[in-house]
Amino acid sequence: MLEIREIFNKFIHHTPLDLEKKFYMLHYKNADIKVLRYLRNILKGLYIEVLGEDEGAIFELMSSGALEGWCWQTTESAIIFFDEDDYIERGNLKFGYGYPDYYHSWICFKFEEEEYVFDSCLNMLCKKSDYYKTFSVELKGSVSAHDVKTELLRQMNTPHQEKKFASETDYSKILWQKYFGDYYREYRKSREGETVICGPEDVNTPFYRSNVGYRVQIEEGKIKKLVAHYYYSD
Predict the structure, then answer these.
(1) Where are the alpha helices (DSSP H) in 79-169?
(2) Contact 203, 89 (CB under 8 A)
(3) What pLDDT does residue 84 have?
(4) Chain-centre distance of CA 59, in angstroms?
(5) pLDDT in tens, 169-222
(6) DSSP structure string for 26-44
(7) Under 8 Å CB-to-CB from 125, ≥6 apart: which residues?
(8) Rounded Cα gap, residues 118 and 105, in angstroms
């Protein structure tokens, strides 16, 4: 316990911590088990497919590290199941001396009058005050769960034009058919039945830098199941 006491002492007195100690401390200060149970219950309807490589429930993919690098997509997919007033934040985390700012997104939510951060890519669940203090957060933008849900349903009810992979010249069509025909057919097949949302570069929009195909199951006006299929940005 000596090491954690030393870390807490530095934390209280605002003494800089290196990256390893920052992660160690937030994992040590994980939220109470009832908060984790709450998250597991509300997120049981979320299923994620990462490219064609990994797929499963969010907590399974978190434990395997499969969600690292997919923070925009994961926060936007998960926030659908949170309360309307919960929200996504986007900004820079300070990892410490020698590390560049880490541009990132995470979910902030309230449970029993306390605000928490759920960071599925860094595998963290802790009080928001501890998260902010540890990483000296530089906030860039935010969006509410209500706005993300509203935009998802709007996009799902809006006809989308088929994606074009080549110009309209006959020559380019021949080249695409010859060299990329199999890729194109597999790409089309993988997106059947999905509403693919490609987000803009506005940090305050519901879907930011996103390229995700969504399939949903709605019961009594509420989203009960959501399958999110992550793609590389086109």
Answers:
(1) 128-135, 145-156
(2) no
(3) 96
(4) 12
(5) 555 555 555 555 554 455 555 566 789 999 889 999 999 988 999 999 988 878
(6) HHHTPPPHHHHHHHHHHTT
(7) 30, 31, 35, 36, 39, 116, 117, 118, 119
(8) 10
**Cβ atoms of residues 115 and 108 within 8 Å:** yes
- Sequence letter at residue 21: K
The pTM score is 0.78
Contact 152, 80 (CB under 8 A): yes
CA distance 100 to 58: 28
DSSP SS3 for 162: coil
Q: Looking at this protein, which amino acid is placed at residue 78?
A: A
- The DSSP 8-state label assigned to residue 70 in this structure reads -
CA dist., res. 136 & res. 186, Å (int): 44
The answer to whether 145 and 79 are in contact (CB under 8 A) is: yes
DSSP letter string over 114-139? Answer: EEEEEETTTTEEEEHHHHHHHHT-EE
Six-digit token pair at 111? 């449970």
Point out which residues pair with 49 in neighbouring strands. Answer: 55, 229
Q: What values do phi and psi take at 117, rounded to 5?
A: -115, 130
pLDDT tens digits along 103-120: 999 999 999 999 999 999
The CA-based angle 11-12-16, given to 5 degrees, is: 35
